[in-house]
Design brief:
Layout lengths: L2 H11 L23 E6 L9 E10 L9 E12 L5 E10 L7 E12 L3 E10 L12 E10 L4 E12 L2 E14 L4 E10 L4 E12 L3 E10 L10 H6 L3 E13 L2 E11 L3 E12 L7 E9 L6 E12 L3 E12 L9 E12 L2 E10 L7 E10 L5
Antiparallel strand pairs: 1-2, 2-3, 3-4, 4-5, 5-6, 6-7, 7-8, 8-9, 9-10, 10-11, 11-12, 12-13, 13-14, 14-15, 15-16, 16-17, 17-18, 18-19, 19-20, 20-21
Length: 390
């Protein structure tokens, strides 16, 4: 365990952790490591005392031989403070900065937010980009960013953001971004965001969305353009294959067919040098009123040209006695063209979570095969405890 890992545990022991999702543990991981890997999560986002809170997430990895090269990395370890009125807040440590439509960035540094009169908000962040392996020779690596936003009553807001990153003193990325969201009526809203790459001179991401809701049906329309720099970490085989630089447009229909049954249809087109169809059908059945137990099934058709594929997904989450929750997910991808990487690419996750009083724990195993790995096996683990009371 590194010094950062020890510090993460010390701060977590002083804080009041919030419960974390025991099912999709990888959602907290912003880096991937050689398998098998373990994720130790110690979170806190409630009050330690008035106006102060903390969180810590430790990423631990090693190989099957458990040799001396095994190490631990800290993903997030931050102290946050705020005034009682909520008009000013800030944090210092290691965290993920998200300013409007700018690309998310993992930094060691500080950020602050001010809520000014006339419904103006100001945000700023400065620090050093995080590098794998806790590399310390980063004297000339830094990132600065800021965002100004205006809240428009109860029905919307607009914002403008700027961010610049330098590696070894040289500008490696620079973006100007804008975002806006508006509620037209109680049933209709629209949103848009765009980021412009000032280094390479082009749109890094642009997205426009709109939604309309009735009692049992929600309709969403969307159009996006995304470059590689704005792709997020993959959390499953479907996202590995589906989240690629492209233009995409389509519509999603969500129908509440029964009190516990949702049927979802997503149809659209994607352009990657040529057009391809994107079709998704999904059903989600809650087995109890609270949704603690649920079954999900999905069929997907995606890809362009010779890279088209059909995917099947099944998932189950079952609440068990003794505060246990079991879950499993299975994906099967069948590529149209066999390139000696297998006719079927499987991905599976099985997890067992436990939560009682102030303690939470979970363990999961993940196995997959894909064009990148003929086989991969990971083990993820989570442990958390609450201190104090709200």
């Amino acid at each position: 365990m590194t010094r950062f890992g020890v510090l993460a545990i010390v701060i977590a022991s002083l804080a009041h952790p919030a419960s974390a999702d025991p099912i999709r543990l990888r959602a907290d991981a912003l880096a991937t490591t050689a398998s098998p890997a373990g994720l130790l999560v110690l979170e806190a986002d409630s009050e330690v005392r008035s106006g102060l809170d903390a969180e810590a997430v430790v990423w631990m990895a090693g190989n099957t031989a458990l040799d001396d090269g095994a190490s631990g990395d800290v993903l997030v370890i931050a102290l946050r403070g705020r005034t009682e009125s909520g008009r000013a807040s800030g944090q210092v440590g290691r965290f993920v900065s998200t300013l409007g439509a700018l690309r998310p960035i993992h930094v060691d540094g500080a950020s602050a937010r001010l809520r000014l009169p006339s419904r103006f908000d100001l945000e700023a962040v400065a620090g050093m980009p995080v590098q794998t392996g806790l590399t310390m020779s980063r004297s000339w690596d830094w990132y600065v960013g800021g965002r100004a936003a205006r809240r428009l009553g109860e029905w919307g807001s607009v914002g403008l953001a700027y961010g610049q990153r330098r590696d070894d003193g040289l500008r490696s990325s620079e973006e100007l971004a804008t975002d806006a969201g508006f509620t037209i009526t109680q049933r209709d809203d629209v949103g848009a965001r765009a980021a412009y790459d000032l280094v390479h001179g082009g749109i890094a991401e642009i997205a426009v969305t709109g939604s309309h809701r009735t009692k049992s049906l929600r309709t969403d329309v969307y159009a996006t353009h995304r470059e590689a720099s704005h792709l997020l970490p993959a959390t499953s085989l479907f996202s590995v294959l589906g989240d690629v630089p492209s233009e995409r447009a389509g519509t999603t229909l969500t129908w509440k067919a029964a009190p516990r049954l949702d049927l979802i249809a997503d149809g659209g087109v994607r352009y990657i040098d040529e057009l391809g169809l994107e079709l998704v059908g999904r059903a989600r059945l809650r087995l109890d009123d609270a949704g603690k137990s649920a079954l999900t099934g999905e069929v997907r058709r995606s890809g362009v040209g010779d890279d088209q594929w059909t995917g099947l997904r099944g998932a189950a989450r079952i609440a068990l006695p003794y505060a246990l929750t079991a879950s499993t997910e299975l994906e099967l991808v069948i590529p149209d063209v066999d390139r000696d990487t297998g006719r079927v690419w499987p991905w599976g996750l099985a997890a067992l979570g436990w939560e009682r009083a102030d303690w939470q724990a979970a363990v999961a195993v993940e196995a997959s095969a894909s064009p990148e790995y003929r086989s991969r096996f990971d083990v993820l683990a989570q442990l958390g405890r609450r201190w104090g009371s709200k």
